[in-house]
Design a protein that fits this description.
This is Secreted protein. With 268 residues, the protein is mainly β. The protein folds into 2 domains: 113 residues, Immunoglobulin-like; 110 residues, Sandwich (Immunoglobulin-like). The chain contains 1 helix and 19 strands. The strands form 4 sheets. Strands 10, 11, 12, 13, 16 and 17 form a 6-stranded antiparallel beta sheet that branches. A 5-stranded antiparallel beta sheet has the order 1-2-3-7-6, with no helix packed on it. A hairpin with a 7-residue loop joins strand 11 and strand 12. The radius of gyration is 21 Å and the shape is globular. 26% of the residues are buried. Bound molecules: copper (II) ion. Copper (II) ion binds next to loops.
Amino acid sequence: MTVHAHHAAAPATPEGLQVSRDGYTLVPVAAPAGTLAFRIDGPDGAPVREYVPQHDKDLHLIVVRRDLSGFRHVHPVLGEDGVWTQDLALDEAGTYRVFTDFAPAATGSPLTLGVDIHVAGDFRPVPLPAPAATAEVDGYTVTLAGEPAAGQGAHITLSVARDGVPVTDLEPYLAAFGHLVVLRDGDLAYLHVHPGGAPGDGVTPAGPEIAFHTELPSVGTYRFFLDFRHGGVVRTAEFTVEAGKPAPHAHAPERAADPHAGHHGHHG
Ligand SMILES: [Cu+2]
């Protein structure tokens, strides 16, 4: 049986598109202004209270307006009643996507659920910035290298400089020198990105380059949000990235060499 090959070929549904998955449901809870409160209800209907930490935290809360502006990555507090709370001022009108990235202790499997929250008012959508390899934040310049293509694993690096000088004393943040969240423009699919190396492993430098491995599931436009810590402050550098079709493998069989190739019909 070729079960393994079949599994490898099946594209996984991206995370973050569902409010309920695998028996777990993200439930917003009424809360005073300026605070976000929610539960994760488990398969038995009760709020989940036990989690397996991922990147140093039981739950990562990502909030972004649906035009991909106003990104926030924060860590709420779990109450005795299983309700998570987070100070969160959503001052600008619009619809926000709230992502909860966690692993319930009962399964140990990471899961990202998402729900929309509406803020009334005069909504002025912000156009998505054009693709660029550099981003500026608070005097830091972050440069993105690597060209992720659809459906293909890619190594990318983000290099941090301050006033033109490479930063070599990045501080660990969430068990890495950087934490990268990638969202797909159009549906806000949430993509897991894995850091290459960890602080203190003896081989991973504290900058200027931060390495990641990612696989973008489709052709399209993505927004990359890199959180990094330096001087005790966490900052976010943002990039718009276009994922094109993967380049054909140089060692792939040459179809043109097949004398019957011309009879296979035209594509498109
Ligand atoms: Cu987090």
